[in-house]
Structure formats: structure tokens, C-alpha cells
From TrEMBL:
<protein>
    <submittedName>
        <fullName>Uncharacterized protein</fullName>
    </submittedName>
</protein>
Amino acid sequence: MVEVIIYRNPLENPEEVARVSIEATVVGETPTAESLRGRIQDERDPIISEYTDGRELLRYLAASYSNGYVMAGYDSEESRRVVEELNDAEYFNWAEESGLDTSL
């Protein structure tokens, strides 16, 4: 699974508050997770509605949810590689081979 995990208090006492997959599935029962579920489903969301693929969504989450109090990171090195290092052709081949529906 390719996921971004969002933690609150990452340096002192890390607490997972949401986990988002490349298929745009949000796991967690926190306000952060609920908010992300709503934003992903809201076609009028000014930022997330612009994304058409789960890779774009995970890049956005990894960057925007990293501010000190909250930290986002990939669940594994393989997830980071898929999202950050594969070029478009390699990524689309990976998505097809994995059988995942990454379109939003």
C-alpha cells in the first residue's frame, strides 16, 4: 500500500491522526481524518479538487501537512519512491501493474 501518514506532536509524542492511501482512502477517526474525507469528496474544494490522481494528492499532503506541530510522511521508502521519484510513464505503468485505481 502506498500511503501518507499524518502525525500530531511528531517530535515529542507522535500520534497518528490520519492515513491516506494513493487511492484516496482516508483511515482514522480524528477531526483531521474527517476533514480530509470531506475535502477529498468536495468538488468545490479550492485545492484538492484540482488533483486528478492519488499521486498528486499524496504529494500535496506530504508537503502541506508538515509544519512542526503536525508532520506527514510516507509509510515506507517504497511509497516515497513511487510518489516522488517515478516519472509519469513509470508511475502509470506501476499503477496499471498494481491494479490500483488512483484516479480521483
